[in-house]
Amino acid sequence: MIAIIYGSTTGNTQDIAEKVAQHLGSENVELFDVKDVGLEIIDAFDQLIFAIPTWDYGEVQEDWEEVWEEVDNYDFNGKTTAFIGLGDQLGYAEWFVDAMGMLHDKVVARGAHVIGHWPVTGYEFDESQALTQDKQHFVGLAIDEDTQRELTDERVAAWCELIQPQLAEAA
Ligand SMILES: Cc1cc2nc3c(=O)[nH]c(=O)nc-3n(C[C@H](O)[C@H](O)[C@H](O)COP(=O)(O)O)c2cc1C
């Protein structure tokens, strides 16, 4: 089973988490709102997808903020992990999907095996904390419901196809 753990203030990240669950097959996925369940469920899953929007100029979303310090208490060794970040590349071009990068860095430091890097092609932003070292990829799926909503469905579908074989391998 795959756990998708999300936080969402205005519902966009929840929508994307649900779309990803549909693509991966609802029978393979359990969805958790971090506001309701916290992080304890991490221990019960070896395949995790974290979904997090960025708020307030490069800050993590409020429900993630509540559990932020606790992330460091978990051991992610042996866990296959992917990330989804929501943001607005025009309105917040200097902080685009920063929170995804911040969460990624914490989880990687605790041993996670990360899958699902996603090309920066097709996005326009100035800076992001969620880039790989060569700056050619995001560390996970970047979704912009504010300015590129029309691209969301194809991005979600393509990203799910990308991660699905790696999830199957890890299962
Ligand atoms: C006040 C405010 C601040 C925001 N700050 C950022 C930001 O720093 N970086 C970014 O990429 N997006 C930013 N956004 C855009 C949100 O991340 C985006 O609307 C996202 O889809 C919200 O997800 P949610 O509905 O799951 O909370 C901001 C939006 C608002 C309204």
TrEMBL record:
Top-level lineage group: Bacteria
Keywords, comma-separated and alphabetical: Electron transport, Flavoprotein, FMN, Transport
Tagged with keyword rRNA processing: no
Claim: Electron transport is one of the keywords in the record: yes
Every Flavodoxin-like domain range: 2-164
Cofactor(s) of this protein: FMN
InterPro entries for the chain: Flavodoxin (IPR050619), Flavodoxin/NO_synth (IPR008254), Flavodoxin_CS (IPR001226), Flavodoxin_lc (IPR010086), Flavoprotein-like_sf (IPR029039)
Name of one Pfam family that matches: Flavodoxin_1
UniProt GO MF annotations: electron transfer activity; FMN binding
Similarity comment text for this entry: Belongs to the flavodoxin family.
Purpose: Low-potential electron donor to a number of redox enzymes.
Name assigned to this protein: Flavodoxin
Gene source species: Neptunomonas marina
Source organism phylogeny: Bacteria, Pseudomonadati, Pseudomonadota, Gammaproteobacteria, Oceanospirillales
